[in-house]
Design a protein that fits this description.
This protein is an all-alpha fold. The protein has one domain. The protein contains nine helices and no strands.
């Protein structure tokens, strides 16, 4: 894998990550609802989902992924339902006082799962990795070093962009928190999560 193809792949993945979609909505919503670390957990889930598709492509499992089309559809709707449930639990949860309760460490799994389900059920990700991705490199001649470079590119491009959104949401949350925007954050982040779930379910 030469420098030109590496840069082309990196640029393409950055552009695709920047396009507004359910992943960005989920990262922003989890950051606003539970904090920057939960935003990071969601980003990690998104990147791991990308790793799954990259591994499929590198191992030549495109045919298998097509046979598993129904499974991806199930994952898509399960992920959408999960996001809507997360959002609804925020919107309809009881809220007392102006202080928010600390988020337990175990809930990081919820943030990670949200990111993972979004990627695995995202038609854009499936189309890119299993159709367009092979155009950037000869999958039959990929070395172990090439594979490591590809994983690093995905981590840097997708993870970097998503972390940028998480940080921006974190800064916005800090500002709104000083303005006593607790209820707004709860309802707003809940609505974002539910909207992200609807977005995932509606995409073909």
């Amino acid at each position: 894998m030469n420098l030109t193809s590496s840069l082309a792949l990196f640029g393409t993945m950055v552009i695709l990550a920047l396009i507004p979609g359910p992943g960005i909505l989920a990262v922003v919503a989890r950051t606003l609802a539970a904090g920057f670390r939960h935003g990071i957990s969601t980003v990690v889930g998104i990147v791991v989902g990308d790793f799954v598709f990259i591994t499929f492509a590198l191992l030549g499992l495109t045919a298998l992924s097509e046979l598993m089309g129904n499974l991806f559809v199930i994952i898509k709707y399960a992920g959408a339902a999960y996001l809507i449930w997360l959002g609804g639990s925020l919107v309809f949860s009881k809220h007392s006082g102006t202080q928010t309760r600390p988020v337990h460490e175990s809930n990081y799994l919820a943030s990670f799962s949200a990111g993972l389900f979004i990627t695995l059920g995202n038609p854009k990700a499936i189309l890119f990795y299993l159709s367009f991705f092979p155009a950037f490199l000869d999958l039959s001649a990929v070395s172990e070093l090439d594979a490591l470079v590809i994983y690093a590119i995905a981590t840097t491009a997708v993870g970097g962009v998503m972390l940028g959104y998480a940080y921006a949401a974190h800064r916005a949350k800090s500002t709104l928190g000083r303005l006593r925007g607790g209820p707004f954050l709860r309802y707003g982040s809940g609505a974002l999560l539910m909207g992200s779930g609807v977005f995932v379910a509606a995409r073909s």
